[in-house]
Automatic annotation (TrEMBL):
TM segment ranges: 12-33, 53-71, 78-95, 124-148, 160-177
Protein name: Sulfatase N-terminal domain-containing protein
Gene Ontology cellular component terms for the protein in this record: plasma membrane
Keywords: Cell membrane, Membrane, Transmembrane, Transmembrane helix
Cellular compartments annotated: Cell membrane
The Sulfatase N-terminal domain, residue ranges: 256-542
Signal peptide: none
A Pfam match: Sulfatase
Pathway linked to the protein: Cell wall biogenesis; lipoteichoic acid biosynthesis
InterPro entries: Alkaline_phosphatase_core_sf, OpgB/LTA_synthase_biosynth, Sulfatase_N
Membrane topology annotation: Multi-pass membrane protein
The keyword Translocase is assigned to this record: no
């Protein structure tokens, strides 16, 4: 007859073995997480845990011990609680390694909300690993649930002990979750030896350990309150820029259609050292770009972070101004907001029909809820699109199909249209989408994926050219802002090391006018950030500027592009932002307005600043 090991039902002589076993399990699991974080380097793990950062390693282990004890208490079984703990930590470490490999950034607590995106996860890690993980997780949860069910048979004495364990560990974990409170004792313990790196989450995790970095990214305010924030300060700012905007506005004769196209992973491989190609995959794109305002956009991320670029483009708020722990506004910020000023809300006031199109599901990054909060009139997804054709083995709806969906809306012509399209055709994986590629590269690694990716962006370029050509048939003026959200995560370490960081954070962008009337249409080498798109488009097309867009327009002339640790000023890139007095005033005005909206009292919403 098999002996069952249940919580607390052990002879005294065995308690010490249980305690030692649990501590050993926690230490090994913490080493495993650090190993995954350090790109499977045993040397770095050993130095971190036993030489460089032993105190932080022990603190992280204590948190893991609490989590283990919580699971064991809930299950009423040391064995089954430990089994679920091992499965959870195993999957978490694997996910961290995968994210570091593809996007060179660690797992954040908010990423755990993506756990239900089964389709995307399967495509990212491959079908076989995905199925194995799902099976292991399902088996673990089954036996964990079974243990909870059977725990009702415990005696009253052990039930009291078990419930006490749940309450105590849950309370302590809740206290741990308040890690970013300056009075939190665990945070104070970390602060004695930790060097937090707000501008680099990757370095944060390396310097404080996986657990330290993970805790650092728990709940936090979007922005810290500026010292000079007050109702009067905001009113002074809104009055100043609103007056300037009203004095310089030149109303266009007709409200134009406005199309935003955020093209998944669209970029030029030829911009990178270590990649040479037999012919230009972006030829059709440059046929358009060379005739209009275009250049390169600074992306916050490499290999991912699509929703953050989208957030910047729609709201004109900068991720650089947020606390570093606010990693995904779509899931961490907007759900808490009742009103989000954006190009959507502005054009709604001007009687535009506003539509978001994403050829994928509605739950990704909570887009359905986010778009509703922003005020879109409708959201067209893969389930409601008329055109759903794909290219060869590509699992995603093609750009050509997506553009047909957009054009159908524009043909109605009863109202001016604002259409925001987020494409999927060029999403990873890349290696097996097409039977053959017309493009061949000589690269420092990963040639197959790069060649397939080039075929992908070539198809995307052709679809864009066809779309812009078709826009000339429309009577209504139609403006297009097109950009790639980030580079794909296909480049080898050799290629990345052969390029400075800026290069792997720059993608292509252009602005197009079907009537060819943009005021700066001869600039083809512009450098910008996505939060400047709307004010730049409004200014160049002669549309009525708001006070907010006037502020951004003036700031763009001084600092054309910036993200954390990337600042473009005076045609040079720097790691820090050095400003003169006038530039500092513009930057501070922008920061105060953004704080007022995301964390403050919304004083600016009570004015005409966003109208």
């Amino acid at each position: 007859m098999k002996k069952k090991l249940q919580l607390f039902k052990k002879k005294p002589i065995k308690y010490s073995l249980i305690i030692v076993g649990m501590i050993l399990l926690v230490f090994i699991s913490n080493l495993y997480l650090q190993w995954c974080q350090n790109e499977l380097s045993f040397d770095l793990v050993a130095k971190f845990a036993f030489s460089w950062h032993t105190e932080k390693f022990i603190l992280g282990s204590l948190v893991l011990l609490l989590f283990l004890l919580f699971l064991c208490s809930v299950a009423g079984s040391l064995i089954l609680g430990s089994v679920l703990y091992v499965i959870t930590i195993g999957i978490l470490g694997f996910a961290d390694y995968q994210k570091m490999f593809y996007r060179t950034e660690p797992i954040y607590p908010d990423d755990l909300k993506m756990i239900t995106e089964f389709g995307l996860l399967r495509e990212m890690i491959g079908t076989i690993p995905f199925v194995i993980i799902i099976l292991i997780a399902a088996i673990g949860l089954f036996f964990f649930g079974r243990a909870i069910y059977k725990s009702r048979l415990l005696s009253k004495k052990w039930q009291i002990i078990r419930i006490s364990g749940i309450v105590i560990t849950a309370a302590l974990l809740l206290y741990v979750s308040d890690f970013n409170n300056p009075n939190n004792l665990l945070r104070k313990a970390y602060n004695k030896t930790a060097l937090w790196i707000p501008y680099s989450q990757k370095m944060n995790y390396y310097n404080t350990g996986f657990m330290g970095g993970f805790l650092y990214n728990l709940k936090v305010d979007a922005m810290d309150k500026p010292k000079n924030y007050s109702k009067k300060t905001i009113e002074d700012i809104t009055t100043k820029y609103t007056k300037t905007a009203q004095a310089t506005n030149s109303l266009s004769e007709e409200k134009p259609n406005i199309i935003f196209v955020m093209s998944e992973s669209f970029s030029n491989p030829q911009n990178l050292n270590g990649v040479t190609v037999n012919k230009d995959p972006l030829k059709e794109y440059y046929d358009i770009a060379k005739t209009t305002y275009s250049g390169q956009m600074l992306s916050q991320n490499y290999g991912g972070g699509t929703a953050n670029i989208e957030f910047e483009a729609l709201t004109s708020f900068s991720m650089e101004l947020f606390n570093p722990q606010l990693t995904t506004p779509y899931t961490m910020l907007i759900p808490k907001m009742k009103e989000v000023p954006s190009i959507v809300s502005l054009l709604n006031q001007q009687d535009y029909q506003t539509t978001a199109i994403h050829p994928y599901n509605t739950s990704m990054y909570k887009r359905k809820d986010v778009y509703q909060t922003m005020g879109f009139d409708q959201f067209i997804s893969e389930d409601t699109m008329k055109y759903t054709e794909t290219l060869e083995n590509n699992p995603y709806i093609s750009d050509e199909s997506a553009y047909k969906e957009v054009f159908d809306l524009l043909k109605e012509d009863q109202k001016p249209q604002f259409v925001h399209l987020v494409t999927m055709q060029t999403h990873m994986p890349y290696s097996d989408k097409y039977k053959s590629s017309d493009y061949s590269s000589q690269s420092l690694g990963n040639k197959k994926a790069i060649d397939s990716y080039m075929q992908d962006v070539a198809y995307s370029s052709e679809a864009l050219k066809q779309f812009t050509s078709s826009l000339k048939e429309l009577k209504r003026r139609t403006l297009v802002v097109f950009w790639g959200d980030h580079l794909p995560s296909i480049y080898s370490d050799e290629i990345k090391s052969a390029n400075d960081e800026v290069k792997i954070h720059q993608t292509e962008f252009l602005m197009y006018d079907n009537q060819g009337k943009l005021s700066e249409r001869n600039i083809h080498d512009a450098v910008t950030s996505p939060f400047y798109f709307t004010p730049s488009l409004f200014e160049q097309s002669g549309m009525q500027m708001t006070g907010f867009y006037q502020l951004l327009s003036e700031l763009e002339k001084q600092v054309p592009a910036f993200e954390k640790s990337f600042y473009y000023k005076d045609k040079q890139w720097n790691k820090t932002l050095a400003l003169n007095k006038a530039q500092e005033e513009l930057y501070e005005d922008y920061r105060l307005i953004q704080y007022d909206i995301v964390s403050g009292e919304n004083y600016s919403l009570k004015t005409d600043f966003f109208k």
